Structures are given as C-alpha cells and as structure tokens.
Amino acid sequence: MALRNIITKGNDILGKRAKEVTEINARILMILDDMLETMREFNGLGIAAPQVGVLKRMFIVEVEDQIVELINPEILEIDGCQKSEEGCLSIPGIIGTVERPVYVKMKGLDRQGDQVIVEGTELMAVALCHEYDHLDGILFVEKAKEIYEVGEEQPEEEQD
Ligand code: CO
Description:
This protein is an alpha+beta fold and 160 residues long. The chain is 21% helix and 33% strand. Strands 1-2-3-6-7 form a 5-stranded antiparallel beta sheet, sandwiched between helices. The longest helix is centred in the N-terminal third of the chain and has 16 residues. It is globular, with a radius of gyration of 15 Å. Cobalt (II) ion binds next to helix 2.
C-alpha cells in the first residue's frame, strides 16, 4: 500500500463524472488499498477515487468501524432529510452544513466483483451520499447551505 496525493478543489478532475469500472483487476485493488491508507492517514470518513486522481466509480467509507467499499455504486432508495456538518479531504479547512437523506440504500460491487447491497443511516448515510456525489463531480460545498472555515464560529452561534 502507498499513500496517494489528494487532489484538492480547483483541479478539474473533481468536477468530472467518473467512469464505470469495467474490470476489477490488480490495479483497481491496489488503488482501493491506497485509497484506504490515504483516507486513514488524513482522518477522513470517506474517500472517492477521483480524489486520488483516478476517474473511476468507486469509493470507501469508514464510519464507526464499519468499512464500506463500493465499486460502480447506484442509489436504490433514499428517505428522510437531515442537516449535518461536512468536510472533505479535497477541501481542507472548510466545513459546511448540508442536507442529506437520513437513510440511503445503494447497490454496487465489492472487491470480489460480487453485487452487494449497502444501507446506511445518519452519519453513514451522509458519508455514502457525499462520496457518491464525488463520482458525479459534485463537491459538498455546492450543496451546502452554509460554509465556514474551521475555527470560525458557526453563523447560527454568532451573538450580537
Ligand atoms: Co469529499
């Protein structure tokens, strides 16, 4: 495994639609291993392949010891609405309040190429939707209701 450079906002790759993975080969598995290592190194909850410069439809999410690796994910179902704070390894120092479903159900392939169904609620739902958006070239700041810098007081906490 090896650490990869994380591409940051401003790079065109992050705005592009990633392409389906056509074959799960040794190269794809190596990229996934590198993505996991890179995500953990930078304390991320998730990472999508475009963030390491690979325009393929796959991502990893790790929330509370649950690791989800999905290749060619599709959203089957969403339900509810929650507002939470998000950050992104590709937009360091920025936090935003984003509305996401409370529940999401996705299907995709695991690293063996078997079809899997993944369900997530609350934080897991947020992370799954955030990473899925990366595959369509969408960054959380485009959906955020409020955006602020880390360390800055949140707008709703401001006192006059
Ligand atoms: Co992100």
